[in-house]
Amino acid sequence: MCILYVWAAKTACDCSGQVTAPAASPPASAPASVAVQKFRVTPHDLQILEGTDTLLRCEVSARAGKVQWTKDGFALGFSAVIPGYPRYSVLVDAAHGTYNLQIKNATLEDDAEYQCQVGPAAGNPAIRANAKLSIVAAPSSIYIDGYSRNAKVEVIERQNLTLQCITENANPAAEIVWYQGETPVSTSVPIVSVNQTSAKRFRTSSTLHLQPRSDDDYKEYSCQARHKALPPDVPMRAQVQLSVLYPPGPPFFEGYSQGENLRRGQQVQIACRSRGGNPPAQLVWYRNGEVLNSPQRTSGRLSENVYKFTANASDNGANLVCEAKNLLSNTPLRAELNLTVLYAPKDVFLGGATQAKVGDAVQLSCVTAPSNPPARINWSMNGRPLSNGTFKTTSSSDGGWVSSSNITLNIDSQSRTFIIVCHALNAELSQNVVGSHTVNVLYPPSAPLLTGYNNGDILISGSILKLQCSSAGGNPPPSLLWYKNDKRVNAASKVTDSKITSELSLLVNASDNNAIYKCEVQNAAIEIPLFATKTLGVHFPPETVKISVAPKNLVPGIRAKLICDSSSSNPPAKISWWKDGIPVEGLNLANRPGLWGGSVSTLEMHVNITQNLDGSIYTCQSHNEVLQRSVHETISLDILFPPKFDAAQITSFVGVEGAPMQVELHASGNPMSISYTWTKDGLPISNNALSGQRLISDGPRLNISRLSRNDAGIYVCEALNTQGTALLEIQVVVEYAPIITSVTEGQSFVSGEQAVLSCQIQARPLEAAHVRWSRPGYDFAMRTTSSFENNTAFLQIENVQRDDIGNFTCIVDNQRGAVATQQVLLVVQTAPEIDHSPSYTRYAARLGVRAQLVCRALASPQPSFIWRRHGKDLKMQRRNKFTSVDRQVDPLHFESALLLESTSADDYGQYECVVRNSMGQASTTVEFSKPSRPDAPLQLRVGNVSDTSVELLWTAGFDGGMQVYYRIRFKQQGDEKYKYLDAKVGQQNSTLENLKPGGTYYFSVMAHNEAGVSKFLPDIKLTLSKGSQPHSAEYTEKDELPNVMIIGITSAAMVLLVLNAALVAWFVIRRQNKSQGETEPSNDDAYSKDDNQSVYKLPITALQADVQKKTAASTYLVENVDIIQSTAYPPKYQESSMCTPPYPMCNPDFTRTLPNPKRHSQRNSATGLIEGMPMRAKDDHMLISNGLYIPSPSPASSLVIKGSYISSPSPAPPADGSYFNMSDKYMSYPPVTY
C-alpha cells in the first residue's frame, strides 16, 4: 500500500486512483480569532511485551486538518481501518479530537518510530508528534548445547568439561547466570557472547569451563535466563547433572576374621565391601582360585557382595579372595583370608568276619571318617571294654585326619552271637561316633523228612497233591527249598522252636508224570545241602488237537489231505473225523512217544476239492477212554475261486438330473479282497474322492454327486481278485426337467385364416400328456386343436381374428423338476391402434430445452408414422427444428419420437400423430405444454399384507414434465390426524410396517413435483389380519365434495385460466420483441402448519427480496391473481420450501440447470441423443411462465396473492440440449439408436 499526501495542495491522491477533495475552507466572513489546532495529548514512548495490545494516544484541540499516523515515516492513511495492517486501527472520536492508534497482538515488526500528523488547513499549519514503540520479546528457549534437559553428563575425574548455555530470539539480549545446585557459580567466570540472529532478535551464549573432582559426582549445574519479559516467579532454566568417573576404594571384609574357628554345619555370611567409585565397583569372590557366583548390590557409592555358605570339612583351610574394580581401575584391588573349620568324623567303618565256628580267631578293624582334630578309638564287646586293640592316625587327602584300630577275638561255645562296638571321640568338639559289628556262631541242621505221597501211586491230572517237608536244629536257622526235576519251586516255610517246616500244594497236570520232587535243607554250618525226593505217576488226557491241510491253497479239481495230530496223552488217545456233525472214516492211524511220558496219535483223511466245499466244516476229536476226557478242533475249507456277480443283480438305474445317484453292485469270490474298476465308453472313472469330480468310483459303488443328462449310457464294472476277473454292464438313464428351446416368432397371420403356434422342447421323459397350452379366458375347446411330434408341441387356431392377438403360454411339466413355461405371441395383421394413455398424449418441457414427444401404436404389419401440426406435415430434417426417430418395441408395438430442438413458446400446443399400414390408419392428438404440477395417481391398490405391514401400489398419472414424488397418508380408525410417509424416488410402491394387528386403517396417495401437488386419491379402508382372521379392504369417497361445489369451483378456475392465458400471451410477445432470454423463477412453496387444512403458497417475501438483488432483462407486473389450492395437502415439509430430502434434485433458486457430466458424457453420433438419456425431454425444475403459476381447478378454498416481482433471466441452455435433472419416467425401454 502506498499513500501520498501533499498538505498544501488543493487535492489529495492515494494509490487506489481515487481523488479526495481537500477540507472545505472556512467562510470568508469567519472571524480572525478562531483557535489554531494543537495537540491536547501527544503520544509518548512505550515499551511493551510481545503479543500484548497497546494504544498510542493522540488528541487534537481545534482540529482543522486531517489526521493520520506514520510508522518510520510511512503514512498509514486517514482511514480508521488501515489497509495492509489488519492489527492496526485508529480509534476516532472526531467530536473530541481523539485519534488514538491501537495495535493488537504486538510483534517485533511493530518496534518503530510512530508519528501523529495533523494536516494543514487555512490558518492552521501542520503539526506532528513522535513516539517510540519498543517491543520487548522474551527468549524463546534456553538450552545447554549438546545436552538434553536434565541430561546426565559423564566426565572423568580432573578432566576439562565445557558447558555452553544458549538463549534464543530475545529482544533485548538476555542475561545468563550459572548455578551449582541453588548456589550461583563463583569459582569460574563464564565467557559470554551476544549475536543478532535476525531483525531485533538476539542470541546469548555463556560458556562455563570446569575440572570436576570426585566430590562433584551427582552435582547439578544449571543456567538461568534473566530478562525483563520473564516473570521472576517462573524462571527459564536448563540443567544437567554431572557423573564424575573415578576408581573405587580397596575392598574389606565383615562377618569373619582371620584365624576364627568355624564348626561344620555353621551358617556363615562374609561381606566384601568397597566404598566410592563411579561407576560402582564390581566385586568378585574367588575360592581357592575359582570364581564364586554371588549377587552384588550397590547403595549410593557403597558396593557390597555377600558370600553365604554352610561350613563343611572341605572349607577347612580354604582361601577366599575378593577383588574390586571398575572401568577406571588399572589393576583390581584385592583382600583375602583363609578359613578354619572344626568337625568330628561323620562315620566309623568296621570290617571282619560275620560268622565263625567255635574255636576260631576272628580279626576286626575300625576306621574313622576324616576329623579335625583327630578322633580317639575305643573297643567294647557285649558291653565290656576291650584293651588289646592297636591305634594309628594318618592325614586325609580331603583334609583332616583318619584314625584306625585293629583287634582279635577268640570264639567259644558260651554264646550263639557276639556284638563288638567301636567308639570314635573328637575331644575338641566333644562328639562321639559309634559303630557295631555282629559275629554269629554256626551249628548244622538235621536231615529233612518228606511226606504226602507214596511211590507207585497213580495220580489223575487235575487233582490236588500236598507234600510236607521238615528239619530240626541248626544255627543260623536253615533254609528249606523245593525243586521239581532240579528246577526251583516256590513254597512258604516257617520256623517254630528251632524246627523248620514247609508244605507244597500241587494241581497235578501232565508235566508231573514221572517228575521228581526234592526237599533241600542248608545253612552256613554245612557245605553240602541235606535233601529228600519223591517220583510221581500221573494219567492225563490230550490237551490240543491240530489239523493241517496239504496243499495249503485249495482250488477246485485237486485231492487234498487233512491230517489230525493229537497232543500227548497217558494212556494213548483215540482219534475220529467228523464232517458237518457226521462221522467220516479216517486213514493211517499211528501212535508215537510224546511229552511227559505219554503218546502222540495221528489220523489222516482225503477230500476231492470242489467250489461247493468252500466253507465246509471238518472236525477232528481226540478221546482218552480211561479218563473219559476229549478235545477237538474244527477247520473250515477255504476254496479259492474268481469273482462272480449275483445273478439277481439289477442292471438298469434311473435318476433325475441334478439329483445324486449311487449304483452298488455285489460280487462274491475267494479271496474276498476284490478290486473294482469302472469305465464308460472305454474311459476309466476316477476313484479319487478328493478330485472334485462328479463321477467317483468307490469299490463296487459308483457315486454321481449331481446327475447330468450327459451321464446317461452304458457303464462297465470289472471285479478282480487273484483267481480271475468278472465283467458286468449296467445302464444309467437320466431324466431331466423340460426346457423350451424355441417358439414361433416373427410370424403374423391373416385374419380369418388358420394360425399354427409351435413350442420345441427338450425333456426326459417327454410325451404329449406333459404339454398343455394356456391363455386366461380363452375358449381352447372350440377354437383350437393341439398336437405333438418330434419333441415339438403345436397349437392350431382356426379363423384367427383381431381379438385373438395376445400371448399363449406353452406349459411343460414332466414331474422331473421346475415347470417350463414360455409365452408365444400370436400376431394377427390389423390396422394401427394408438395408445391414448396420459403417458403418450401429454408432454411438457421448459423453454430452450430439447423436447421429445412419443407416439405409440399397436399394428401389424409394421406401420409408418407421420407428424402434423396445424394440419400440415412437419418437415423432418437433421438440421431442422423437428426430427423423428421410429423404432419397434416388440412384434406388435411401434413408436415414433418427435424431437423438438430448443423449445420456444411457439412450440407449445397440439400435434397430430398419424399411423398407417396396409390394414388401415389411425391418428391421435398429442398435447405439448409448459411444465405443471402432476396429476393424481390413476389407481391405488393393495399388494402383500401381513399382520403388521401393508404394501401399497399405484399407477402414475401425468408427471407435469418434471420428477414426481409420492407421499402416502394413513391413519388408524379412530385417530384424528393422518400420518405421512414419502415413497422412495422413482418407485410407485411402498411398504408400511409396524402396524397394529387386526387394526383398521385408511390409506391414500398423492403426487407432487416442484410446480405443485395433486390431490389425494380416495381412501382405501383396510382391516389387517390377526392370527387366522384374514384381512379385508374397501374403497371410500371420504374426501370428495358435492358435485355442485366442484362444478362451481371448476367454472371459476376456468375463467382464471383464460385470463392467465391472455397475460402469458402478452408477456411472450413483449419478450420476443426485446429478444431477451426467459427465466423461470422459483416457486419456493411451502405447506402451512395446520395439519387439517394446509395451503400451497407462493413466498411473497422471498420474491420481494429477489427484486432487490437482481436486475431483470424484462419486468412483468402481476396483480390481483387468485390462486386456487387444494385443502387436502399434507403438512409442510419445512418452513419456506419444498426443497428438502429426500428430493436432492430440488433447486429452490431455479436460476440454473447444469449438464451432468456422468449422464451426458457420451453422445450418439447417429441421432444426436445422449447415450443413456430418455428421448422424452422433461425439465425437472419447475417452470412458471413469467413468474406466475395457475394450477388446475380443485375443490378447495382460494388464496389471493397480490404483489409483483421481477423474474431473473434464465441462462442459455447447454450446446447439446442436455440437462442434469431429467425425468426417469420414460426409461421403460433403453435409449437405442433408431
Automatic annotation (TrEMBL):
GO terms for biological process: anatomical structure morphogenesis; cell differentiation; cell-cell adhesion. This is Nephrin isoform X2. It is found in: Membrane. The chain crosses the membrane at residues 1044-1069. PANTHER family: NEPHRIN. The lineage of its organism: Eukaryota, Metazoa, Ecdysozoa, Arthropoda, Hexapoda. It holds the Pfam family Ig_3. Residues 31-134, 139-243, 250-340, 345-440, 445-537, 542-636, 643-733, 738-826, 832-929 form the Ig-like domain. CDD domains: FN3 (cd00063), Ig (cd00096). Residues 936-1027 form the Fibronectin type-III domain. It is a single-pass type I membrane protein. GO terms for cellular component: cell-cell junction; plasma membrane. Keywords: Disulfide bond, Glycoprotein, Immunoglobulin domain, Membrane, Repeat, Transmembrane, Transmembrane helix. GO terms for molecular function: cell adhesion molecule binding.
